[in-house]
């Protein structure tokens, strides 16, 4: 590895660290503004070295399972507990020891405590978006939204989902979809942007599965031909369009310019893929295994994600819920309407998490898949250190925790530190931009790769830098 590459991949640390990295990052971003390497007067060796950097790092992960916790789980009540903080901050739950000395978790996560030797916790995540839609867009794309507005809507000006970037820059072999999203489309009033391909074009949208995988009659009509329709007859474009229209409902702008012809071709390949149909055949799993994951849409969705990456899918997003909160919804439990935080998460969120997450990690590990599969567990922000008047916690993006496992990250490791009330990072702050860069880096994609947005405007897939300290 040459010196320039080493500087590029220096870990994210305190703001006064990584001067060489900052210089290189400035040069990369300045290139986009001035229009090319030649304008900087670089020599031919420098041009060749820059070209070599474009090839990207060696991949440590073959696939990603992205477990999105819509609504914002409370970091201070799960993975960054402060039992010595004053009353009104430390919460109603107690910490318990895990199988890693010094790492504690919520007392309602006893199974998860037994697999903390498989994970890395980043306790210094932070940003400034306080509303669910813009904060979630930030979490799902790694790019800060233009405004912190609850009504933020999808548009081709906004950035694509991680999986769509992967589908363009490092697609699979074509036998399986590169990017699958299930079992919900998420939104808070309006559909949350960042769930599809945006300016990359519809060809790179996820295969969207919105059927509940926990239902006994779970099937995929998108991938099944009607009894009276042969594969040959389906080749006719009008028949194809009827089958695919259901996949187009996330679009809020005209589909005519979004690569529908290529999307149809991809859909046809899926219809004719026994490997894909078998990957979605949850009935092939034993009842015991399905029970282990949990008989919920999220639990069975995680089991399906394991089957998909095992078959060759590179990026699977599993949404915990479709809504931000409620007694059986997402993690936004801070209201006066019977959704007060602690009783609700004790009955719903924590039990599901404690059953499904450790089962997924154990299953991947036992199958020899964890080292090649990056698992990302995260929400859009954390929760206020101070308990509010409804015995709940409000939105808090200034400091929260993300859990990573497998795919080339350290095991039993904590990166970053919050202050004594879990209010702000005090060591190694990490932005969503940096987490995005880390995900791409682990997949072998240069996180500073240029793609082209609306009007062929060159943009970077990430403005952040890989957090190298979490890599094994």
What can you tell me about this protein's structure?
- Helices cover 30% and strands 14% of the residues.
- The protein is of the alpha/beta class.
- The chain has a single domain (56-216, 280-470), classed as 3-Layer(aba) Sandwich (Alkaline Phosphatase, subunit A), CATH 3.40.720.
- The protein has an 8-stranded mixed β-sheet, with helices on both faces.
- α12 packs parallel to α13 (341-366).
- It starts with a helix and ends in a 12-residue tail after the last strand.
- The model is unreliable at 1-53 and 249-258 (pLDDT under 50).
Outline the fold blueprint:
Layout: H1 3-8, H2 19-34, H3 44-53, E1 63-68, E2 95-97, E3 104-106, H4 110-113, E4 119-125, H5 132-141, H6 162-169, E5 179-182, E6 187-188, E7 190-191, E8 207-208, H7 231-234, H8 237-244, H9 260-271, H10 274-279, H11 287-293, H12 297-311, E9 315-319, H13 341-366, E10 373-378, E11 382-383, E12 395-396, E13 400-405, E14 413-415, E15 417-418, E16 425-427, H14 432-442, E17 450-452, E18 458-460
Parallel strand pairs: 1-9, 1-10, 4-14, 5-8, 5-9
Antiparallel strand pairs: 2-3, 4-13, 6-7, 10-13, 11-12, 15-16, 17-18
Give the assembly state of these chains: single chain
The rounded Rg comes to 22 Å
* N/C terminus separation: 17 Å
CATH architecture: 3-Layer(aba) Sandwich
In CATH, the topology is named Alkaline Phosphatase, subunit A
Count of extended strands: 18
Q: Count the helices. How many?
A: 14
CATH homolog superfamily: Alkaline Phosphatase, subunit A
Report the uncertain regions.
1-53, 249-258
**Sheet with most strands: strand arrangement:** 8-5-9-1-10-13-4-14
**What is the SS-derived class?**
alpha/beta
- The helical percent reads 25-40%
The largest pleated sheet is described as:
8 strands, mixed
């Amino acid at each position: 590895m040459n010196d320039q590459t080493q500087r590029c991949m220096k870990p994210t640390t305190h703001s006064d660290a990584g001067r060489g990295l900052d210089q290189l990052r400035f040069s990369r971003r300045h290139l986009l503004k001035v229009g090319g390497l030649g304008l900087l007067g670089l020599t031919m060796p420098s041009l060749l070295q820059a070209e070599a950097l474009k090839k990207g790092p060696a991949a440590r992960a073959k696939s990603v399972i992205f477990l999105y916790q819509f609504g914002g789980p409370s970091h201070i009540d799960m993975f960054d507990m402060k039992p010595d903080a004053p009353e009104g901050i430390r919460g109603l739950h107690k910490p318990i020891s895990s199988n890693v000395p010094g790492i504690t978790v919520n007392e309602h996560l006893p199974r998860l405590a037994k697999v903390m030797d498989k994970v890395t916790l980043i306790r210094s995540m932070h940003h400034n978006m306080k509303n669910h839609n813009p904060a979630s867009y930030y979490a799902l794309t790694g790019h800060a939204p233009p405004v912190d507005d609850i009504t933020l809507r999808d548009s081709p000006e906004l950035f694509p989902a991680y999986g769509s970037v992967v589908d363009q820059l490092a697609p699979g072999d074509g036998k399986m979809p590169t990017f699958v999203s299930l079992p919900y489309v998420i939104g808070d009033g309006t559909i949350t942007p960042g769930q599809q391909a945006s300016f990359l074009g519809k060809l790179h949208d996820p295969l969207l599965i919105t059927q509940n995988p926990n239902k006994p009659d779970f099937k995929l009509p998108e991938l099944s031909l009607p009894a009276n329709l042969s594969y040959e007859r389906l080749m006719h474009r009008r028949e194809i369009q009827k089958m695919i229209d259901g996949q187009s409902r996330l679009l809020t702008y005209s589909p005519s310019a979004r690569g529908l012809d290529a999307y149809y071709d991809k859909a046809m390949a899926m219809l004719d893929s026994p490997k894909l149909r078998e990957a979605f055949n949850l009935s092939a799993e034993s009842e015991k295994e399905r029970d282990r994951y949990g008989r919920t849409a999220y639990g069975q969705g995680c089991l399906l994600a394991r089957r998909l990456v095992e078959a060759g899918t590179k990026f699977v997003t599993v949404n915990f819920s479709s809504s931000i909160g409620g007694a059986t919804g997402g993690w936004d439990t801070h209201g006066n309407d019977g959704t007060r935080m602690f009783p609700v998460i004790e009955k719903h969120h924590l039990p599901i998490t404690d059953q499904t997450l450790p089962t997924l990690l154990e299953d991947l590990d036992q199958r020899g898949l964890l080292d090649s599969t990056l698992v990302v567990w995260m929400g859009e922000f954390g929760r206020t250190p101070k308990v509010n008047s409804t015995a709940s916690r409000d939105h808090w993006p200034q400091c929260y925790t993300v859990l990573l496992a497998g795919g080339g990250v350290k095991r039993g490791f904590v990166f970053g530190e919050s202050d004594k009330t879990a209010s702000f990072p005090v060591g190694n702050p990490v932005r969503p931009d940096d987490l995005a860069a880390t995900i791409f880096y682990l997949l072998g994609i240069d996180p500073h790769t240029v793609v082209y947005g609306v009007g062929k405007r060159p943009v970077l897939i990430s403005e952040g830098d890989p957090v190298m300290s979490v890599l094994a």
